[in-house]
Amino acid sequence: MAWREMYNKNNVFYKILRSEIPAEVIYEDDFALSFYDIHPRSRVHALAITKGLYTDFGDFTANASPQEVVGFFKAVLQVANILGVSLTGYRIFSNIGSDAGQEVPHFHMHLLGGEKLSP
Ligand code: AMP
Description:
This protein is α+β, with helices and mostly antiparallel strands and 119 residues long. It has a single domain, classed as HIT-like (HIT family, subunit A, 2-Layer Sandwich), CATH 3.30.428.10. The protein contains three helices and five strands. The protein has helices at residues 12-17, 57-63, 66-83, and strands at residues 25-28, 32-36, 44-50, 90-93, 108-113. It is globular, with a radius of gyration of 14 Å. The termini are far apart. Bound molecules: adenosine monophosphate. Adenosine monophosphate binds at residues 12, 23, 37-39, 47, 95, 101-104.
């Protein structure tokens, strides 16, 4: 079984979801929890994680319900609106697996903005 197919509850975002460790929450709904990245790479650096237990984008997109997928991406847009970067611009991305350097094996999107981002 590939590493990504088995969700490992021993990860920091699972603990944040369960309020076992704190996070600076920006937004929460039935599909997503968003909070600030602990090591910001730009003036604004938020994360949005799924409420469901998915290891990465591939796992989420293949296995989540259409309602979860739509709900999650709408939540990411909400986060951009709340952070006030919708007009100035921002970048969203997700690291998937070892070649991308994914550190936390719970699906999440990064949102960077608040300044001119390097290409
Ligand atoms: P990735 O490499 O895409 O898995 O990114 C994981 C991100 O989670 C990194 O940018 C970390 O800085 C961030 N991170 C790790 N632990 C925490 C935490 N306790 N609270 C907020 N962000 C975290």
